[in-house]
Design goal:
This protein has 443 residues and is of the alpha/beta class. The chain has helices spanning 2-18, 21-34, 40-46, 70-78, 109-114, 165-175, 192-204, 222-237, 268-344, 347-354, 356-375, 381-401, 411-442; strands at 58-64, 94-99, 104-107, 131-136, 146-150, 178-183, 209-213. The chain contains 13 helices and 7 strands.
Length: 443
């Protein structure tokens, strides 16, 4: 058993040593949320707050007509032949390409176990049977921080898909951090289905959209390439959602697929820079969200402690009111009984039993009650006694039903809340500050 533990610890050290700074930051932030003992998700849940753990990787969604070069771009980026490529429609479903410790292929529900935040795909009929994951060991470029989402090639006409492809892509667009749209100069670059989906996603997430003229080296001469670009831009500008200032469409092609020399400028590195920029933006957002969630948790704890202090003050006032009514309700019948006994017992018996000083004091205190009793006619003594008893009962009922105590935190619960606040404000925020300083030092 100890041998296995040592092996596991050794593996963790090796993994930690091979992780980049950005990977460590995202992984550590993710672990701060999901930790079994002190995870922010668990702490927030105990306070009635729902938090989601940040992802450890960014999602890059690739869109385009069939044979637009989406799969070829992925293979080039990770420097492994994972996705099939060709003129035919090779990608008929959704494929998630991510990095891992060993090469694996997952299908259907196994993908959802790996990516629980994609569970919403199950609501789209038939799509789960066409979802797959390719895990490869590549560490090229920034692949360890990326999950590529390769989508089916889009075509017009009678082509039917076994699921609602438009709805599925739109749903994935909401979860994507970056969306690459590839237009093929020699294929169906102006496919209406592609343009419709792109326009709808662009309406909700214009800042995530990046457009590229793929396979630019196959577009012929420079004049042909410019003509294709103009046609695509004109078609895009016809749609109000895509007609915007500063529209840019770099020309890219996969260098390893180039059969002959081309004078076409290859801006494929611009796509890599966009990925790196999104990673940096995601890391900063994750750190900001971490601080925001810590503040939310602290505010809720402060609110609960404040409510407990207010409940203490309320209960103290309620108990004083209860004691006053209860004492008054018991005191009147007690004084009446004592006055009756003092008036009916012989004076000598009281003097011998209580002594002279106590007897005089008793007379002094009970004389107002005795005078009040003498002022009531003899015929109404019974009614007066009944009224007095009824009044005393009313005071006791008033004490019972007007005293509502608020629930309070136990000492153990207060200690637990203070401990959670100290952990969140101390340890978690220190981690955030340290990782932010480390990240700034890199740049």
């Amino acid at each position: 058993m100890s041998g296995k533990v040592k092996q596991r610890l050794g593996a963790n050290k090796i993994e930690s040593a091979t992780l980049s700074v950005n990977e460590k930051i995202l992984k550590e932030c993710h672990n701060l949320y999901i930790d079994a003992d002190n995870g922010l998700v668990g702490i927030a849940s105990s306070l009635g707050l729902s938090l989601l753990a940040p992802r450890k990787k960014i999602n890059v969604l690739l869109l385009g007509n069939h044979s637009a070069g989406k799969s070829s771009f992925i293979n080039w980026y990770i420097e492994e032949h994972v996705q099939r490529t060709g003129v035919a429609i090779e990608t008929q479903g959704f494929t998630f390409i991510t990095s891992g410790r060993k090469r694996e292929s997952l299908m259907g529900n196994a993908t959802l176990h790996l990516y629980p935040y994609f569970q919403g795909l199950t609501e789209i009929e038939g799509v789960i049977d066409y979802v797959a994951t390719e895990i490869c060991t590549s560490k090229q470029k920034k692949f360890s921080l990326i999950t590529f989402v390769d989508t089916p090639g889009l075509v017009d006409g009678d082509m039917s898909y076994p699921f609602d492809v438009n709805n599925a892509i739109l749903w994935l667009g909401d979860l994507a951090d970056l969306i690459f749209v590839f237009f093929d100069p020699i294929g169906q670059a102006l496919c209406k289905r592609t343009l419709n989906i792109v326009e709808e996603i662009n309406h909700k997430h214009p800042d995530r959209m990046k457009f590229y003229l793929s396979k630019a080296d196959e577009a012929g001469h420079e004049s042909d390439r410019q003509r294709v670009l103009m046609q695509i831009v004109q078609e895009l500008c016809k749609r109000p959602g895509l007609n915007k200032c500063g529209f840019d469409m770099p020309t890219i092609f996969v260098p390893t697929l180039q059969q002959k020399s081309s004078r076409c400028a290859n801006q494929i590195e611009e796509a890599c820079k966009e990925i790196e920029k999104t990673i940096q933006h995601t890391i900063q957002n994750t750190l900001n969200s971490l601080e925001k969630d810590c503040e939310q948790i602290s505010d809720i704890i402060d609110s609960k402690l404040q409510q407990d202090a207010e409940a203490y003050s309320h209960n103290l006032r309620a108990k004083c009111r209860y004691g006053f009514f209860l004492l008054l309700g018991f005191l009147l019948p007690l004084l009446l009984a004592m006055a009756f006994l003092a008036g009916s017992l012989p004076k000598d018996l009281l003097l011998s039993t209580l002594g002279r000083d106590l007897t005089h004091a008793l007379d002094a205190y009970l004389s107002p009650v005795q005078q009040l009793a003498k002022a009531i006619p003899d015929d109404y003594h019974l009614e007066a006694l009944g009224g007095l008893l009824l009044f005393s009962l009313l005071l006791m009922l008033l004490a019972r039903f007007t005293t509502c105590l608020k629930s309070r935190l136990s000492k153990r619960e207060k200690r637990a809340l203070l401990s959670k606040k100290e952990y969140v404000q101390g340890h978690v925020k220190d981690v955030k500050v340290n990782r932010e300083a480390l990240r700034l030092a890199m740049h």
